[in-house]
Amino acid sequence: MANIWDWIGPTSLTKRRGWDHLPAAVAERKASWTIDDHRAIIVSPLVHGPGATDMLNGARVADTNSAVFACLQVIATAVAEPPIRVYRLKAGDRSELDDTPLGALLDRPNPHMTISNLLAYLSNCLHVDGNAYWRKLRAGNPETGNVVELWPISPTRIVPRTTPDSGDFITSYRYYVRPGRYEDIDPSNIVHFRMGLDDRDHRLGCAPLKRLAREVSSDQQATRYADRLLANLAINGLSLEFDKDAPAMTKAEADEAKARIQATYGGDNVGAPSVLSPGAKLVSHGFSPEQMDLKVLHRVPEERIAAVLGVPAIVAGLGAGLDRSTYSNFSEARESFTEMKLVPFWRAIGDVLTMSLVPDFMSERGVSVAFMIDDVRALQDDQNAKAIRLKTYVESGILDTDEARAELGREPRPKQPAPALPAPKRLTLLRKSLDDLPGQYEGLRDDGLPDWESELRSFLSGQLRRANAALRAGADTADGLIVEGEAALLGETLAPLQARLLDDVQRLVIAELGVQFDLDDPLTRSYLQAAGSNIVGITDTTRSAVQAALIEGQAAGEGVDQLATRLRELSAFSPKRARTIARTELGHASNTAAIANYQASGVVVGVRVFDGDYDAECAAMNGRVFTLGQQPATLQHPNCRRAFAPIVDASELTRSA
Prior knowledge:
This protein is mainly α and 657 residues long. 46% of the residues lie in helices and 11% in strands. The chain has helices spanning 66-78, 101-107, 115-129, 213-232, 251-265, 295-309, 313-316, 319-322, 327-361, 383-395, 401-407, 431-435, 437-472, 478-481, 485-513, 521-531, 535-555, 560-568, 575-601, 616-621, 650-656, and strands at 84-90, 93-96, 131-138, 147-153, 158-161, 172-178, 181-185, 190-194, 238-242, 280-284, 367-371, 606-610, 625-627, 643-647.
């Protein structure tokens, strides 16, 4: 009788010191339902015709089941892609430990097998049997010596045992060395990997392939059915027919005619011309290639085999996936396979290695074994998408050019000497034209206001949704509803608008001053930081409004639905507040951009304040001049229209003083 391990074929290992010689399976090795008792499985026919019930009594099913083998091969090949490393976790930071004995063992587990061999075999064992075992070989004392080699053991040769009333979870592992001989191995010398847990015996894992008996049988029988049709046509290939008036043939004559037809038209003579007596004709029976297309019989079992083993059919090259394959969805399927199947698989293997091997090498807390998945190809960003994202970061001032180049693995650009500033061409003319700049800034504000207002409306609406979701999840304080991260989200919302405004202001300043200059990265970052200085205050104002609403609603005994309604009615989330914030932040960013450009120009020495609001404080500032760097606040109050004109003649500062 074939057991479930037969589905991937025979196993063998190189003989090593006698203990791991693997003879034919012995009768006493184990009588567990998880391996041997498949007689209870009833496999129904997939279609009318040849059944699928001889799975257990026929030839070795798994040796010829290509769908199962293809999926197992994909996992076994992929699991060894990232290297295994030893890490130390300290104060929340994980750092790799170099040149450790444990790392050296994992790089070369024994003299005859690579870690890739062990991982591929481990993967097959886990998916077929649910368990995989590595034996530790120690130098000197076999129980306490240093671990120097790791060897795989077939799960058909080993079983965990627990002595009754011992209180042990596993007392020993019984390893069947050869017929009539076994060895009990202490659990400290076995690395036991499990695929989940078997509900009937938590000492063992649960094999996905054991849940596929019906699908494997159906797929196998579909292939066998096609083979039989090709071999025998399932019916007579040719028949010799005569007119109804022809005399009847005796049995001897019929046998002789059959033999002559087989000799004349069979074997290498297929397709030879025929010459028949009058009234006789040869009739061909069988299926055309189109009629013998049985791929539909394979689709359902292929899809289920791929699903249970966690491999997209397209990645395994199965027909169920190739029918709809393109380069794009193959790439997406590979990424999904890596993220949903391999990453958890790598983590599970690393956890077992940490638990079973780290204590043999070091007693330090926080040391772990894990796969270094940073360079796994399927997890890497598409380079084009990455370049576009980095370009956006550079344009918004989040990164400078050299930081973006480093992300792409490139060296910083050589520093170029700063170009000499051209001599000012218009510095004698310009009082009136420079005083026109505030009016141009006003135009930029008016043009940009719809975009700023739209972004802020969307942000406040999203903030309200997040607050209500937190409320329904059980949060009952303002800090729980308007979390610290809201300020960062608002900053990310405004940063692209602020960066675009900086460019627009720079063009106006260059045009009016008649000098060319660039804003370097530190100055740009300083501008973005100054332009976003109100963001925390905006968030705090929202949180205070939410806190007042919660206190009032809770005092009134309101439930979650009533409190959510109260939040929706707050002016803190209203379109009117979005417009106020938009006008204020746009004015603040505009003036901050102007000051940054004046500083970068190299020719501006001071500013003149233009303030048209004419409230007492604003009126007191209107027309005053200040040395650059000593100017007043960018805005006096929300919705303030203050602006700054550049001064290039130092004598104006003296006269004003």
